[in-house]
UniProtKB/TrEMBL annotation:
It catalyses: 4-CDP-2-C-methyl-D-erythritol + ATP = 4-CDP-2-C-methyl-D-erythritol 2-phosphate + ADP + H(+). Pfam families: GHMP_kinases_C, GHMP_kinases_N. GO terms for molecular function: 4-(cytidine 5'-diphospho)-2-C-methyl-D-erythritol kinase activity; ATP binding. This is 4-diphosphocytidyl-2-C-methyl-D-erythritol kinase. SUPFAM superfamilies: GHMP Kinase, C-terminal domain, Ribosomal protein S5 domain 2-like. Belongs to the GHMP kinase family. IspE subfamily.
């Protein structure tokens, strides 16, 4: 038996951190949406009790350090699964980019293995298991557009965001998510209007989304890496309707209503940045 699963990237339309909690995580309010830039996983059932992971990309671990491996190991241990799996992971999403690539891979693995090993877990049960491995994994299991609160693991699905073009540009620098959260001063930053963003999504208002877009983590990453700020400015100069850093960065995305302008932003950015993508919002058919 063989299963193919798509693992789409996400962008943050808004990301707010309200305060630092006693468990050292931040209490968050995020509106996220999945986009048509995806990794692909193939899962093959093995009768032997092993987990085999083959990653088709350089510099990505194919052992216990990989969230996909951890997802398989967690299900095996929790449900005493005696069968095994051979997983091939084809990467297209840039790594450590603020696009939840690793979390989406783990979510796809949980979904696929639920089927492959016939575990009959509900989406909510998978999301609870996913939250043990990473804060963004529950959202990745739901996909589409959603409000994520708590540590990021409490998901309220929203209508799909209005169709538009999304230009992504990832500068070739790495940022550490724990480092960005550590340097964030929640009391000193301007907070995005999450309720306004949720309303804009419910209204299907592209203009409302542009008016309420915001990410508190920009205060840390843009100050430390001026090239990220420059990319954002270039996107706006080339005609983007709005531009924002996703997650803890360093990827910046532009939302553009008109295709001709999106192409201009895309072509313009290619002069500054090696990794540039032109995509659309994406939601799995339910
Ligand atoms: O949950 P995950 O392992 O993906 O989180 C990575 C890091 O991001 C955490 O160790 C923490 O430093 C930071 N984080 C946070 N508050 C959250 C989610 C993540 O401070 N709600």
């Amino acid at each position: 038996m063989k299963i193919n699963v798509k693992a789409p990237a996400k962008i943050n339309l808004s990301l707010d951190a309200l305060y630092k909690r006693k468990d050292n995580y931040h209490e968050l309010e995020m509106v996220m949406t999945t986009i048509d830039l995806a990794d692909r996983l193939q899962l093959v059932l093995l009768e032997k009790d092993i987990i085999k992971l083959d990653v088709k990309a350089h510099f990505i671990p194919d052992d216990k350090r990989n969230l996909v491996y951890q997802a398989a190991a967690l299900l095996k241990e929790r449900f005493s699964v005696k069968q095994g799996v051979a997983i091939t992971l084809d990467k297209s999403i840039p790594v450590a980019a603020g696009l939840a690539g690793g979390s989406s891979d783990a979510a796809a693995a949980l979904k696929g293995l639920n089927q492959l090993w016939d575990l009959k877990l509900t989406l909510e049960e998978l999301a609870d298991l996913g939250a043990e491995l990473g804060s963004d994994i529950p959202f990745c299991l739901y996909g589409g557009t959603a409000l994520a609160t708590g540590r990021g693991e409490i998901i309220e699905p929203l209508p799909m965001m209005p169709n538009c073009w999304i230009v992504l540009a990832k500068p070739s620098i790495s940022v550490s998510t724990p480092g960005v959260y550590r340097d964030l001063r929640v009391g000193e930053v301007e907070h995005p209007n999450t309720a306004g963003m949720v309303q804009a999504i419910r209204d299907g208002s592209f203009e409302g989304i542009c008016d309420n877009i915001g990410n508190v983590l920009e205060t840390v990453t843009l100050a430390k890496h001026p090239e990220v700020k420059r990319i954002k400015e270039k996107m706006l100069e080339f005609g983007a309707d709005t531009a924002l850093m996703s997650g803890s960065g360093p990827t910046v995305f532009a939302l553009v209503k008109q295709y001709s302008r999106a192409k201009r932003v895309y072509n313009g950015l290619r002069g500054f940045c090696e990794e540039v993508y032109l995509v659309r919002p994406w939601q799995e058919e339910k």
